[in-house]
Amino acid sequence: MNGYFGDKRKQRLTILGSTGSIGTNTLDVVRQHPDRFEVFALSAATKVDLMLAQISQFKPQYAVMASEPHAKLLAEKVKQNGFVTKVLFGFDAIDMIASHESTDTVMAAIVGAAGLSSCLAAARAGKKLLLANKEALVVGGELFLNTVKAGKAQLLPIDSEHSAIFQCLPVDATTWKANVEKIILTASGGPFRTREIESLKDVTPAQACAHPNWVMGRKISVDSATMMNKALEVIEAKYLFGMLPSQIEVIIHPQSVIHSMVQFMDKSVLAQCGTPDMRGPIAFGLSYPDRIQNGSTAIDFKTIPALTFETMDSHDHQARFPGLSLAWQVLNAAPGSTAVLNAANEIAVQAFLDGLIRFDQIHAVNIETLSKVLPSNPASLDDLLGIDAMSRDAATSMVKQIAD
Known about the structure:
Blueprint: H1 3-6, E1 11-16, H2 21-32, E2 37-44, H3 48-58, E3 62-65, H4 68-80, E4 86-89, H5 91-99, E5 105-108, H6 116-124, E6 128-131, H7 135-151, E7 154-157, H8 160-168, H9 176-179, E8 180-187, H10 205-208, H11 218-226, H12 228-241, E9 248-252, E10 258-264, E11 269-273, H13 279-287, E12 310-311, H14 315-320, H15 326-331, H16 337-353, H17 362-372, H18 381-403
Parallel strand pairs: 1-2, 1-5, 2-3, 3-4, 5-6, 6-7, 8-9
Antiparallel strand pairs: 8-10, 9-12, 10-11
């Protein structure tokens, strides 16, 4: 991939989920380096006006909306403004732009299991795949990794924690694993780290989405508040780095300065630090193995009074964040269990955002769904989608029981 810069040819990007937090931050990095990157295609769900603004500035060849009504509305606006971007809709179109021969790099930032198919399409086509959609690994597991290998794609993590781990590991992938004792994922603890546990039943969606350090979408913000995002990151780390579940640890680090760490066999620890700004890992993925300016501010250590850490072993944190332990539970269960957990959590979080269940009932939906859905070993995308559908049905039934 270094040749893109060496021969002066611009790297052509497809950004899946361009109107979300990761997508807009990616475009901000691209905006700073017009000599290095050009946008080939964009996709979004419903934000027509923002997509139109992105088309105006970056002039992609394709723009794909999730639904036909949103695509028709966008197409009308594109025509009115005299833009030449071709507007499409639906998952087949998203898969097409992810695997198109004219794109070099795919930023996979579609939230949830909905992004799995396009990630597989990019992997089969051998793209440089920047993975911001953790669900591709959580749901896809070995099937996704095998597709990456077969397609000879280059997989680079964009989650700040996994990017940090990747940056701490030696470049030579043939030797580092034997030297690593464990991976340490850091977590901010979200907005309710010190809140009375008994009061969590009164949490509102607005409170759950008000993260103290990071600016994120609503779903991932709620996941951060429950620490289910960290459970999903444990699963992702297992697959990305080929570690045993027992080699992955989570600690709370409220300042979000250290993004994650690697402990080696000689007990030395490497940590990656930076301000809590997603443009850092995004730019690293885009330019890898080079590094480029991205608009982030440098850490001013003079203004940081202390870096503190809290164990997840305390009874208080276990009671406050019961969903975290589900990561190790599903990793040690039947293949496909990680997909069950992901689907249940997507349904539960949306139910909370819609006012159907309380914040503290998200975990109840997740654990009940895991007890009711016993997955078979998934061998194809259809198998995974079948597990996903069964899990969503079970979780939806659980939500209805609670709501009634």
